[in-house]
Amino acid sequence: MIKTAVAILNWNGLDFLKKFLPSVVKYSNQPDVNIFVIDNASSDKSIEFLKQNYPQIKLVILDKNYGYAGGYNKGLKQIKAKYYVLLNSDIEVTENWINPIINLMENNKKILACQPKILSYNNKEYFEYAGASGGYIDKYGYPFCRGRIFDTIEKDNHQYDDIKQVFWATGACLFIDAEKYFKLGGLDNDFFAHMEEIDLCWRINNAGYKIFVNPQSVVYHVGGGTLQKTNPKKTYLNFRNNLYLLYKNLPDNKLFNICFVRKILDAVAAIKFLFSFKFKDALAVFKAHINFYKTKKYFKNKRKLNKEITVINNHKTILQKNIIWQYYIKGKKKFNNYTDYL
Questions:
Q1: Which residues, 6 or more positions from 310, have their beta carbon under 8 angstroms from its beta carbon?
Q2: Integer Cα distance of 28 and 6 in angstroms
Q3: Please, what is the angle between helix 279-295 and helix 232-249, to 10°?
Q4: 120 and 139 housed in the same domain
Q5: 157: burial class by Cβ within 10 Å (0-12, 13-18, 19+)?
Q6: Which one in 51, 66, 110, 274 has a CA-CA gap of 20 to 30 Å to 285?
C-alpha cells in the first residue's frame, strides 16, 4: 500500500490533462506518491493520450459517467493508499504542494481532511471561488470561504496564510484519510455534483474529527470546468443539494426551523432570478425543491446513519448568523468581517 494517491477524476477532459498533468507529474515525483486517473467513461481520446504520454500514471477506467461523487467512490475502491488526494483535472500544482499537508495530518490524527490555498489560475493574484483558503457555512447552510463570500473574491495579500481549522475543504483539491473516507460513507452519490464535499466534511465534523487548510501548499484552479456558473443545471444542483445537505446533517432540534427559513430564502432567490429575467434559473430553484421532496424519503436512512456517528452537534466553524443579511444588507463583503464570530 502506498502512502499518498493523487486521484484525478476525468470525463472528456483531454485538454485539461494536456495542460495540467505536467505540473502534477513534476511536483509529485516522490517514492511514496502515485498518480491515478479515474476515467468516467470518456468519449474523447483521454485514455489513448494517457497511455501514450504518461505510462507511469495508473488508470482506473469506469464503465459509465458516475458523476463526481460516484466516480470517485467507485474509482477509489480500486486504489489502496493511506491518504487520498482528490484533485480536479483543471488544477496547476506547485512545488512542494503535497508534503506540508501530509505532514500536518501525520502529526495530528484528529485532522481527517485538509486543503491547500486555492488561487485562480486565470487571475493568480486572487483566490479561486471553489475553496479559496478554507470553507465555512452559515447557520442556514450557505457556503463561503476565507477569501470568497458569494461573488466577492478577494485578492491574496497573504491575509489568510495561517494554518487553520475550517468547516469544509474543497473537493477541487481534497486531502483525506483513506480508511476514514469509506468508514464515514465517502461522497454521497445522490448529490451527483456540487456540495458533496461539504456533506462529507459535515459528517467528519459530526464524528468528532477536524478539517484544516494549510496555505503552505498552493495550487491554481481554473474552475467551472464541468458546468459554467450561468448554467441552470448548476443552479438546480446547488439548491437541491443544499437541501440534501441540511436534511442529512442538521440535529433534530434545528432541522424544522432552519429548513423553514431556507424555503423562504429560496423563494426570494427564485423571485430575484425572475426580476433579472433569468427564467431558467428561477425554474431550476422550483425544480430543486420538487425533486428534494420527491426523494426525501430515500435520505431518511442516511440521516439516521449520520446521527449514529455523531458525537458533536455544535461546531464553532458554522457561522451562527445569516450571511445573506450580513452580506447584502450590512455590506460585510470580506471574510475578515466575520472573524469575530468564527
A1: 206, 207, 251
A2: 8
A3: 30
A4: yes
A5: exposed
A6: 66
Is residue 276 within 8 Å of residue 173, measured between CB atoms? no
Q: What is the C-alpha to C-alpha distance for residues 278 and 232, in angstroms, rounded to an integer?
A: 9
The number of domains in the chain is 2
Domain C-terminal end among 221, 243, 275: 221
Secondary structure letter of residue 137 according to DSSP: E
Element housing 142 (H / E): none
Structure letter (DSSP) for residue 131: T
Q: Which domain holds residue 170?
A: 2-221
Amino acid found at 294: K
- Partner residues linked to 247 by β-bridges: none
Out of 164, 194, 221, a domain closes at 221
Asked whether residue 45 is domain-assigned, the answer is yes
Indicate whether 157 and 178 sit together in one domain. yes
Q: Which three cell numbers stand for residue 318?
A: 458554522
Q: Are residues 71 and 157 in the same domain?
A: yes
The whole-angstrom separation of Cα 260 and Cα 307 is 21
Query: Nearest 5°: CA angle at 139, between 136 and 142?
Result: 55
**Is the pTM of the predicted complex or chain greater than 0.85?**
yes
Whether residue 317 lies inside any domain: the answer is no
- Joined together, the cell numbers standing for residue 210 give 477536524
Pair 172, 141 in one domain: yes
Q: Residue holding cell 484552479?
A: 221
The residue among 134, 135, 127, 168 whose CA lies nearest residue 151 is: 127
Chunk the chain into consecutive blocks of 10 residues (it has 342) and report each block's average pLDDT, rounded to whole numbers.
96 97 97 97 95 97 93 97 98 98 97 98 96 97 97 97 98 97 94 90 97 98 67 92 95 94 95 93 96 90 92 94 96 95 90
Residue 22 amino acid letter: P
Find cell 461573488 and name the residue. Answer: 151
Q: Where are the alpha helices (DSSP H) in the chain?
A: 14-27, 46-53, 67-76, 99-107, 178-183, 196-206, 232-249, 252-275, 279-295, 300-309, 323-324
Statement to judge: residues 163 and 266 lie in one domain = no
Q: Are residues 296 and 262 in the same domain?
A: yes
